[in-house]
Amino acid sequence: MSNPNYTKGRAFEYATMSKWREQQYKCTRAAGSHSEFDVIAYRIDRKPEFIQCKKVTTEPEAKRLLKSFKASTMPSQYYHQSIAIKIKGFKNILSVTV
Q1: What is the rounded distance in angstroms from the CA atom of residue 44 to the CA atom of residue 60?
Q2: DSSP class of residue 36?
């Protein structure tokens, strides 16, 4: 039986890849590499995207993480760096009008 945290993290990475694929990117996971990035998304006509996927438990934690990421990430002329954050308990809200 696999580690539940690993399984949830992997599912989040696949969901992130799905979002990029909707924008016509090809994607790959950096699975098991323990690298700085979890997903690489690329298109021939754009700079590649190096995406870090993080799961947090609270909205303030997510905001701190975003602020830290922006402050510590240096721009590159060759690629983009992104962060994808999943806040525990936050899901798409479906609505029905009767």
Answers
A1: 36
A2: S
**Nearest in space to 82 (alpha carbons), one of 42, 53, 43:** 53
d(CA 72, CA 66) in angstroms, rounded, equals: 10
Which residues in the chain belong to E strands, given as ranges? 26-29, 39-42, 49-56, 80-87
DSSP H helices, 1-98, are 4-21, 59-72
pLDDT per position as a tens digit, 31-53 = 766 778 999 999 999 999 999 98
Total count of residues recorded for the chain: 98
Using a cut of 0.85, tell me whether the model's pTM lies above it: no
Tokens of 88: 């525990």
